[in-house]
Write a structure and sequence with these properties.
Blueprint (H helix, E strand, L loop, with lengths): L2 H13 L2 E3 L2 H6 L5 E5 H5 L5 E7 L3 H16 L4 H11 L9 E6 L3 E6 L2 E6 L1 H6 L6 H12 L3 E7 L3 E8 L6 H10 L3 E5 L4 H11 L3 E3 L4 H13 L4 E5 L5 H6 L2 E5 L4 H6 L2 E3 L6 H15 L2
Parallel strand pairs: 2-9, 2-11, 9-10, 11-12, 12-13
Antiparallel strand pairs: 1-13, 3-8, 4-5, 5-6, 6-7, 7-8
The structure holds adenosine-5'-diphosphate and magnesium ion.
Length: 294
């Protein structure tokens, strides 16, 4: 496109809350035929809130364990950890001094307290500890998944201590944004580090048949690359540190406003609003910019 067309495009973007850092995106955007969306914070609000905390231990033990849980999540920077500490704060839980805190990327966190190891995180993390779920708990967890909740597990080496359900509602405009893209013949994918059942529930709420769950950050980038290898022009939309590799890999990278600074640094376009309908708008803008010069 001519410099003038590009300037007009960048200006139109700004009017529509789309910051375009790199003119190349404007020239590529109209060719995009695959859009990859991150789930948490991109399709959903990204403000997770604990809705249920089910203890699997006697009432007498709960206070002490709640303090350990509070200490563990207090050291984690994950948005889910924040949801848990906010929830515990409301019942005046105090913290304890834990040792050997470790964060297990894409799975959760672990630490020691009084010679016991504690973990809080996804199903794989407690599976690895060799902790199994009672049939009743399994059923309860399935119900939570169906309501699109993220479920995290708190355990020591011997047993499951608590199950925590966390809700992160889908943004009001996400479904519409997905439909608009699909109507234009673009295939929309959803990627998430969250578990398969929760991913399925969210994907169905917004009308995305193609999704992948339990995806680690490097695998998000590998997925984008896979689509490119099949001849697709790929736009990646994300908000988190764990999306930055995939954003860097994509042909067109779009960071959600209010996301992490790293995502915004890497991405060539940033949406100032957190409204997902800006994504089809941004791609449409590219079409118009390129058509102007033809
Ligand atoms: P997402 O794409 O959903 O942001 P992540 O890769 O960051 O995924 O995390 C994947 C999963 O790991 C979460 O859904 C959660 O089950 C678990 N997890 C990670 N960190 C924590 C934590 N601090 N507390 C509880 N669970 C966690
Ligand atoms: Mg995210």
């Amino acid at each position: 496109a001519t410099p003038t067309a590009i300037m007009v495009g960048v200006g139109k973007g700004a009017e529509n809350n789309i910051l375009i850092k790199d003119a190349e995106s404007l020239e590529l955007g109209y060719r995009v035929n695959a859009v990859v969306l991150d789930k948490t914070g991109t399709i959903t609000e990204g403000k997770p809130v604990v809705t249920d905390l089910h203890w699997l231990v006697s009432e007498g033990e709960q206070n002490r364990l709640a303090s350990i849980l509070y200490a563990l999540e207090g050291q984690s920077e994950h948005p889910l950890a924040n949801a848990v500490t906010e929830y515990l704060k409301r019942s005046d839980v105090s913290s304890v001094a834990i040792n050997r805190f470790e964060s297990v990327t894409g799975h959760g966190v672990t630490a020691e307290y009084e010679r016991e190891t504690y973990v809080i995180g996804n199903r794989q993390l407690i599976d690895r500890q060799g902790v199994s779920l009672h049939e009743d708990v399994e059923k309860q967890v399935d119900g939570l998944y169906k309501s699109a909740k993220t479920v995290v597990f708190f355990a020591n080496q011997r047993q499951l201590l608590a199950v925590i359900a966390i809700a992160d509602p889908v943004k009001a405009t996400s479904r519409q944004a997905v439909e608009t893209l699909q109507r234009r013949g673009i295939t929309v994918y959803m990627l998430t580090g969250d578990n398969t059942q929760t991913a399925a529930a969210v994907a169905s709420q917004v009308g995305i048949p193609q999704y992948r769950a339990e995806v680690l950050p490097a695998d998000k980038a590998a997925f984008v690359q896979e689509l490119q290898a099949q001849g697709n022009v790929v736009a990646m939309v994300g908000d988190g540190i764990n999306d930055s590799q995939a954003l860097a890999q994509a042909d067109v990278s779009i960071a959600m406003g209010k996301g992490s600074d790293i995502a915004m640094d890497v991405a060539k376009m940033t949406l100032i609003t957190s409204d997902l309908t800006s994504v089809p708008k941004a791609l449409q803008l590219s079409r118009k910019t390129v058509q102007t010069i033809r």
